[in-house]
């Protein structure tokens, strides 16, 4: 992390807001804005959050679902515990992680979230391909665990593999939107795909 990057982050509005409000990441505001616009959490009781660390999306999901729901978070890195969240430390691209998710879920899931980013190398084609691979893996997992009619929210880096990925999402969901929330940095290539009504 360079000094310039750290300085920029300190000036960042959502970074400071997250600190003040006790949220673990500024990413929480992206999910909040997506929810406000698309009513993502309506009727949702069971959530799977792929690539969840440090846990901003988990905190927001908790605030929306309450204590009688179930939230499962998965990441390569450990997170500080949160009440009512079942955390699985693992690599989403490994079959054993999917097996653990299925076991913990103990039934179908209403909403799958995916905010995955690879370790960025700075070589754009490589980072884009790696990120798409994580988004593809998330789609594969969603396909396995979502209930019919379920929802899927996924971050995808823009680039030449984007449209092909979007087509794959469209094959599985009846309604699909592409958006960039206000809290997502303008200079970032990330977009969010919101998919409703999983065809099962
Ligand atoms: C942008 S962060 C997610 C932020 C999170 N949504 C939040 O609100 O705090 C991206 C995460 O992807 C995770 N990640 C990257 N590759 C992964 C993989 N193969 N399996 C699991 N997690 C992965 C990273 O460890 C990192 O925590």
Biggest sheet record:
7 strands, mixed
**CATH level-1 class:** Alpha Beta
Q: How many β strands by DSSP?
A: 7
The fraction of residues in strands falls at 25-35%
What is the subunit arrangement here?
Answer: single chain
- What is the CATH fold-level name? Rossmann fold
The tally of domains stands at 1
Instruction: Please identify, by name, the CATH architecture.
Output: 3-Layer(aba) Sandwich
Rg value: 16 Å
Q: Low-confidence runs (pLDDT<50, min 5 residues)?
A: none
Helix amount, in percent? 40-55%
Mean of the pLDDT scores? 94
User: What is the spatial order of strands in the main beta sheet?
Assistant: 3-2-1-4-5-7-6
Instruction: Categorize the overall geometry.
Output: globular
What descriptive keywords fit this protein?
alpha/beta; Rossmann fold; 7 helices; binds S-adenosylmethionine
Overall description:
This protein is 42% helix and 25% strand. The chain is globular, with a radius of gyration of 16 Å. With 200 residues, the protein is of the alpha/beta class. The protein contains 7 helices and 7 strands, in the order H-H-H-E-H-E-E-H-E-H-E-H-E-E. It has a single domain, classed as Vaccinia Virus protein VP39 (Rossmann fold). The termini are far apart. Helix 3 runs parallel beside helix 4 and helix 6 packs parallel to helix 7. The chain has a 7-stranded mixed β-sheet with strand order 3-2-1-4-5-7-6, with helices on both faces. The mean pLDDT is 94. Bound molecules: S-adenosylmethionine.
